[in-house]
Amino acid sequence: xxxxxxxxxxxxxxxxxxxxxxxxxxxxxxxxxxxxxxxxxxxxxxxxxxxxxxxxxxxxxxxxxxxxxxxxxxxxxxxxxxxxxxxxxxxxxxxxxxxxxxxxxxxxxxxxxxxxxxxxxxxxxxxxxxxxxxxxxxxxxxxxxxx
Length: 147
Description:
Layout: H1 13-38, H2 61-84, H3 89-111, H4 115-145
């Protein structure tokens, strides 16, 4: 006997917020990282070379590439997986959120405090919390549907 195919349930509000945060943050990171890599002399940030003194970097090219690929790529991948309802989505999303919180803590400790870091740390925390929440919701849905 073939299993009856059911329509997927609509995305909950929390899932929509999670996906929106991930895709928006990922896009911003890709674009910002690309600009930093293209203009590594700090003319984009107007930060001055002293900001990188306590890091292994001499200009903004590698940090820009890391921002674009790591944060941007990670968040876009997490948001896409969440949108597709891939089983790994909550784990990838929670990891991306925690990584962003860690990155902002590192930037504050090693480079210098910027108010925008508080905002992005909060985004990372929200993504982590929403991912954990979506994992719980997905497990409850699977149990109730008998999957």
